[in-house]
Design brief:
Shape: globular
Strand order of the largest sheet: 2-1-3-6-7-8-9
Number of strands: 9
CATH architecture: 3-Layer(aba) Sandwich
Helix content: 25-40%
Radius of gyration: 17 Å
């Protein structure tokens, strides 16, 4: 797996901290992970690492919009209608705002040949400014907001399917919602609102039965066999409905 972990502003610093924590857990499961971190997260390095390592999965954290996903200092890494082919044959996971919006980047990546794509259809809330919450990224509130996203990669690393990873993320969000509702924390309502927003924004495009363990080495010739035979499913979209609000935009 390849990850991108820019850290050029508060939002990406929070995201980078927790992606790193989950990467260590994934490595403990015996999985190989190659990381692009901080100033390394440029378009040129991104393309070079994809070509050099040919990872079966990409977990990108950064800022996004309906049509863009970016790296350090807003450097564009993926753009609808421009370079979807970079994700052909890969399991893709974008921790960013809006990339999962209907008709946007994530759907375009799946239609262009990505095996499946996890992304968020609205703004992803990953930090809450409050005098009652530590500004450090390792606080429990930020953990609860980002853990449901990281769970996706842990479940995939265990060999389960994309749709099982999707459901696992939803279940983890529900755990934290129940936790904060009974916590008595002065900002519990805002935290719960943020968790519900993120949970309901999570989208899965592509092949829901896809498993990393079933992905062969990708070549232009093998892609057709991968898409129609190995995974044996038509395009599908798994989605939920719900609220809204800001942060990784």
């Amino acid at each position: 797996m390849l990850t991108t972990e820019p850290d050029w502003d508060e939002a990406t610093q929070y995201g980078s901290y927790w992606v790193k924590a989950f990467v260590e857990e994934i490595r403990n499961l015996g999985k190989d992970v190659v990381e692009l971190v901080g100033d390394e997260v440029t378009y040129d390095n991104f393309v070079d690492y994809l070509q050099s390592y040919n990872p079966s999965a990409f977990w990108g954290m950064g800022h996004g919009s309906e049509n863009l996903f970016t790296g350090q200092n807003g450097d564009i890494l993926l753009q609808k209608g421009v370079n979807e082919d970079l994700m052909t044959g890969r399991v893709v996971h974008l921790l960013a705002c809006l990339c999962g919006a209907e008709g946007g980047l994530a759907e375009s990546l799946a239609n262009a040949g990505a095996v499946c794509v996890f992304a968020y259809s609205r703004d992803f809330i990953l930090g809450i400014e409050s005098e009652n919450i530590s500004p450090e990224p390792d606080n429990e509130v930020t953990q609860s907001l980002l853990e449901p996203d990281g769970v996706i990669e842990l479940i995939l690393a265990l060999g389960l399917s994309a749709v099982e990873a999707y459901k696992g993320s939803i279940n983890r969000s529900d755990y934290w919602i129940d936790y904060w509702l009974s916590s008595g924390h002065p900002d519990a309502d805002l935290i719960v609102y943020s968790l519900i927003n993120n949970r309901d924004a999570l989208m899965l495009y592509g092949v829901p039965q896809a498993r990393l363990s079933e992905l062969p080495a990708i070549s232009p010739v093998s892609l057709v066999a991968l898409w129609f035979t190995v995974l044996g499913s038509t395009l599908a979209v798994v989605q939920t409905v719900g609220g809204a609000k800001v942060e990784l935009s």
